[in-house]
Design a protein that fits this description.
The termini are far apart. The protein has seven helices and 13 strands. By secondary structure, it is an alpha/beta fold. The protein has a single domain, classed as Nitrilase/N-carbamoyl-D-aminoacid amidohydrolase. About 45% of the residues are buried. A hairpin with a 5-residue loop joins strand 11 and strand 12. Strands 6, 7, 8, 9, 10, 11 and 12 form a seven-stranded mixed sheet that branches. A six-stranded mixed sheet has the order 5-4-3-2-1-13, with helices on one face.
Length: about 325
């Protein structure tokens, strides 16, 4: 049995330094309870930009500009040492951490933000960076399109893990790219929640015969900074919850073994039998004996994409 922890807590929205400090405290907390794999929500550092679902396209341009500037300033440049406290916490506790971040591009224009999920190993090293392939609807005004570079399944002391972010889980080929790498623990940081999302998580567990860890965004009005522009207009004072969370754990049989945790901030610490992911494939192995590679093949380009290529000077 392996012990995993889902962190359904809010960040300090638009404040990466305080959010990183909070993440370190939470890593220490659940590690003390025996957690070996710790999962944070989508865009935890430094907050999912929930306001995009309420701003009027074209009508709230000034507010959009102000919030985007603040989000960009609080996005993480992975070439810096901004996440050093989290890396040290993972190493000190000997745990694997998956965390959603707003990632600031450091290789091209240095001004695009990506919705990324990073994996930190027990040695305090970032061993995978997955950028969300398809930002959904108004998310495209905030985040750039990711590529296949992070579509990896990673060996960890807990098992073979991989991540897709929110509605990427509705992309059959993205899911299949993880199934075909022998994924045992499918991690889904998400802003979505509710019955339909729960049904999707159960379907993926049954389809891929893997454990599914869905980590939802729990966000209340009080979590927004006091100087948030047009706060009362976008979020009336009598509105408490902006997003309810809905984190859950699903076994490879499709059974919900923990959660959904709704309108509550807490840490789900759960024991899972990772070997069940292999045993369950006896009757259905969609990337193995049930795959029919003579008929169907999937090509995945995992190279990092760049818009410019420079040749060396003579």
């Amino acid at each position: 049995m392996k012990k995993i922890a889902i962190i359904q807590e809010s960040p300090y929205v638009l404040d990466k330094e305080r959010t990183i400090e909070k993440a370190v405290d939470l890593i220490n907390l659940v590690s003390s309870k025996g957690a070996e794999l710790i999962v944070f929500p989508e865009a935890f550092i430094s907050g999912y930009p929930a306001w995009i679902w309420r701003l009027r396209p074209g009508g709230d341009w000034g507010i959009s500009e102000e919030l985007h500037i603040r989000l960009l300033k609080n996005a993480i440049d992975l070439s810096s040492d901004e996440l050093k406290p989290m890396l040290e916490a993972a190493k000190d506790n000997g745990v694997t951490v998956v965390c959603g971040i707003n990632e600031r591009d450091n290789a091209n224009s240095q001004s695009t933000i990506y919705n990324s999920a990073i994996t930190i190993n027990t040695q305090g090293q970032i061993i995978n960076i997955h950028r969300k392939l398809m930002p959904t609807n108004p998310e495209r005004m905030v985040w750039g399109f990711g590529d296949g570079h992070g579509l990896n399944v990673i060996d960890t002391p807990v098992g073979r893990i991989g991540s897709l972010i929110c509605w990427e889980s509705y992309m059959p080929l993205a899911r299949y790219s993880l199934y075909s790498q022998g994924i045992e623990i499918y991690i889904a940081p998400t802003y979505d929640s509710g019955e339909e999302w729960v049904g999707t998580m159960q379907h993926i567990a049954r389809e891929g015969k893997c454990w599914v860890i869905s980590c939802g965004v729990a966000l209340e009005r009080k979590d927004l900074p006091e100087d948030f522009p047009n706060l009362d207009g976008l979020y009336p004072a009598d509105e408490e919850w902006i997003n309810p969370g809905g984190s859950l754990v699903v076994s490879p049989t499709g059974e919900i073994v923990a959660g959904p945790l709704s309108k509550e901030k807490d840490c789900l610490v759960v024991d899972i039998d990772v070997e069940l992911a292999s045993h369950s494939k006896r009757a259905l192995d969609v990337a193995g004996h049930y795959s029919r590679p003579d008929i169907f093949k999937l090509h995945v380009d995992r190279s990092r994409q760049f818009s410019t290529q420079f040749n060396n000077k003579n």
